[in-house]
Specification:
mainly alpha
């Protein structure tokens, strides 16, 4: 990609912005989760995420040319997995603090490492094995307190949905890795969001809530935040290498912690604090592998 090494500062700033916008989207989702069904939330979030993405493609003179595809079945698989992941992730956000739901979503690279070995014949290295063990230890540390809690049943369901969302996200990203050889980033994003909106719309017969003006506004904001976050992340990867952005991936966890504390009055749990280093170290180890990890430590 052009300019990949030339503007790392801009790439880092865009990655931090993407994390902030994603957290803002999740805050919107959680704030309406008691009154709006997950399917209805998925529909509005996806529908209004199309707006910034289409505008972005038009500014780059890639719309509608970028939507041409040679891999419709690949798009269908990626979009279906991504839509299912969105349902699971939003369900987790409804049941868990935003910080804990975000931490569960960080497990996607662990599942990608496993999927890369099982499905794509990649090498199963000691780095991947160590990363998987550390991440699983973090999950155990996070989940154990819920077993003795009065609200444990709801939290356990939230953790299960979070794990399912991370697994589905990993499947979607592995599919992206395959189809991105012939498909544009714009087409992959557009078809995913379109399928997610249709999947959300399909839940209408199950019963949707009547929306007040403030609730509708929050749902619209969730879509605008989500779509803009996707654009910011795409541009971040254009301006800086993945290995250079990696240390800033986890600044994204700061915003959910602040949101839980300041907006929802939820203190950071001891389980979260104990699980955090295990899970983040495991994800970094599995995702970066040996050579890239040694390079990053030298930097």
């Amino acid at each position: 990609m052009t300019g990949l090494e030339d503007r790392p500062g801009l790439g880092i700033a865009l990655r931090v912005l993407a994390g902030f916008l994603t957290a803002a989207m999740l805050v919107c989702i959680k704030s309406v989760s008691d009154e709006v069904p997950v399917g209805q939330t998925v529909f509005f979030r996806s529908l209004f995420a199309l707006l910034p993405i289409v505008i972005f493609l038009m500014l780059r003179r890639e719309f509608p040319r970028a939507l041409a595809t040679r891999r419709p079945l690949g798009h269908a698989l990626r979009s279906g997995l991504g839509a299912a992941s969105m349902f699971a992730s939003f369900g987790a956000v409804a049941l868990l603090p935003v910080a804990e739901a975000t931490l569960m979503a960080q497990l996607a690279p662990i599942f990608m490492a496993i999927g890369g070995v099982v499905l794509m014949g990649e090498r199963f290295s000691l780095y991947r094995a160590g990363g998987i063990v550390l991440a699983l230890m973090g999950v155990v540390v996070l989940v154990l307190p819920a077993l003795d809690s009065n609200a444990g049943e709801g939290k356990l369901a939230g953790y299960a949905l979070g794990l399912g969302g991370a697994l589905l996200t990993a499947g979607a990203l592995l599919t992206v890795r395959r189809i991105s050889r012939t498909e544009t980033a714009g087409s992959i994003a557009f078809y995913f969001i379109l399928v997610a909106a249709l999947a959300g719309l399909a839940t209408w017969p199950l019963g949707w809530a009547s929306l007040s003006a403030p609730t509708l506004g929050i749902l619209i904001l969730s879509g605008l935040f989500g779509g803009t976050a996707h654009i910011a992340l795409t541009l971040a990867l254009r301006y800086a290498e993945v290995s250079r952005l990696a240390p800033f991936e986890y600044i994204a966890l700061l915003w959910p912690v602040l949101a839980d504390w300041l907006l929802f009055g939820l203190p950071v749990s001891s389980g979260f604090l104990l699980a955090l280093p295990f899970m983040l170290c495991g994800v970094a180890l599995a995702a970066m592998e040996g050579r890239r990890l040694r390079w990053w430590l030298r930097r």
